[in-house]
């Protein structure tokens, strides 16, 4: 009987988490869902940050003006963050955690060259947090938040073997070209996100962007791959059949 009660209680807690914060629960590690008061405080600070970044560079924003605008006590701010830069670092970490989680969730699809599901969830996240990230990636922001996420994605994609099924040229040349291909694909994806967020009017839907990004990622010219492998082999003096 007690085991049944425990299971029911656990299910009720799970339902509460999903109802309270589906977007946060979907990207957080198990057991990492924030207390409601913490979410409310951080949300107020983030909203204030967005408003301030719309009128001045991030590096010029002070804790005092941020907490005044958010109507949050300065002491409360320091419970959550060391300073403004720590707040930014945690925001960057949120993006990395989200992307890492999406890669894990969609790992089976990605390993078979299917990118739509991953890209849909990725664009959906940036759409829901568009006000913040359009500013972070703009002239008053800090684009390193996206760059660090893309570096992590390249590493995870490479570990999954995405784009690595070709058998041309030498293994050394293939690996080099695959690394550059990852960098090119992830860099292009980052540019798509940045340009999409910057659009003021007529912005395409999440589903449309997911399909566009997936087309770019799947339609790699095989002849181009072979030629670039051949270039590396020829410059390194490695026979193509090695």
How would you sum up this structure, described in words?
The protein is 74% helix and 0% strand. α8 (116-128) crosses α12 and α11 packs antiparallel against α12 (206-218). The chain folds into two domains: 1-21 and 32-80, Arc Repressor Mutant, subunit A (Orthogonal Bundle); 84-242. Residues 1-32 have low confidence and may be disordered. It contains 13 helices and no strands.
Secondary-structure element series: HHHHHHHHHHHHH
Helix content: over 70%
When the domains are counted, the total is 2
Strand content: under 5%
Given helix and strand content, the structural type is mainly alpha
Give Rg in angstroms: 22 Å
Total count of strands: 0
Largest sheet data: none
Segments where pLDDT lies below 50 for 5+ residues?
Answer: 1-32
Shape: elongated
Count of individual helical segments: 13
| N-C termini distance | 66 Å
What integer is the average pLDDT?
A: 76
């Amino acid at each position: 009987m007690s085991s049944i009660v425990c299971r029911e209680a656990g299910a009720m807690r799970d339902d509460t988490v999903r109802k309270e914060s589906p977007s946060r629960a979907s990207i957080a590690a198990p057991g990492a869902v924030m207390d409601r008061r913490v979410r409310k405080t951080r949300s107020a600070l983030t909203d204030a940050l967005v408003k301030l970044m719309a009128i001045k560079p991030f590096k010029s924003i002070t804790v005092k003006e941020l907490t005044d605008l958010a109507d949050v006590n300065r002491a409360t701010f320091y419970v959550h963050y060391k300073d403004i830069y720590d707040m930014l670092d945690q925001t960057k970490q949120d993006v990395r955690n989200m992307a890492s989680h999406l890669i894990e969730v969609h790992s089976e699809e990605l390993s078979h060259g299917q990118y739509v599901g991953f890209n849909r969830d990725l664009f959906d996240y940036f759409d829901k947090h568009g006000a913040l990230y359009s500013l972070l990636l703009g002239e008053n922001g800090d684009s390193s938040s996206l760059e660090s996420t893309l570096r992590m994605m390249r590493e995870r994609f490479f570990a999954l073997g995405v784009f690595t099924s070709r058998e041309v040229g030498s293994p050394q040349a293939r690996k080099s070209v695959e690394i550059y291909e990852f960098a090119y694909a992830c860099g292009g994806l980052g540019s798509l996100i940045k340009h999409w967020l910057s659009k003021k009017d007529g912005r395409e839907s999440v589903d449309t962007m997911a399909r566009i990004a997936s087309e770019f990622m799947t339609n790699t010219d095989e002849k181009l791959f072979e030629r670039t492998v051949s270039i590396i082999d020829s410059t390194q003096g490695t026979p193509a059949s090695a």
